[in-house]
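Hey, resending since the last one bounced:
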Amino acid sequence: MNEYNGEVKKMMIILSKATLENVYAAFILANGARAEGIEAEMFFTFFGLEAVHNKKLEHLHVATVGNPAMHIPTLLGGIPGMESLATSMMKKEMEKIDIPPVHEFLDILSASGVKLWACKLAMDMFHYKKEDLYEGMDDVLTVGGFYDRAKGLGTHLLFI
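The structure tokens again:
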């Protein structure tokens, strides 16, 4: 009998929100897994689908309202233009350290072998078609199909 040593063999990352900070966190974790020789798969569900929707993926924003990490009062976060300002500032900082734009990052993930899955329920709920999504998507899956892919020792699920 093989003894499991706790090694991470596969990361299954579930993205449910397409704020700029959540999308990049998920992308960086998936990319880092591949760089370490770990399999990686991403499941885009609910508003996380915007990260792979062709008309929305280049227009993601930083969440300024209700985001304690912004260190500004919620009321200020809701001032018109605050979200755009915060988003612009974050994009400039990411550019300085060569973090690619969303579409380019998706190309990198796909080329490195990260599997990209859209949630069927969310697709149906938002009336999206597969053609609406980034061309490198592997397919549309049910939750059960995603869990089937997560089987095996050494698989870790991460919800973002």
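Residues 16 and 45 are 5 Å apart (CA to CA).

Sorry for the duplicate.
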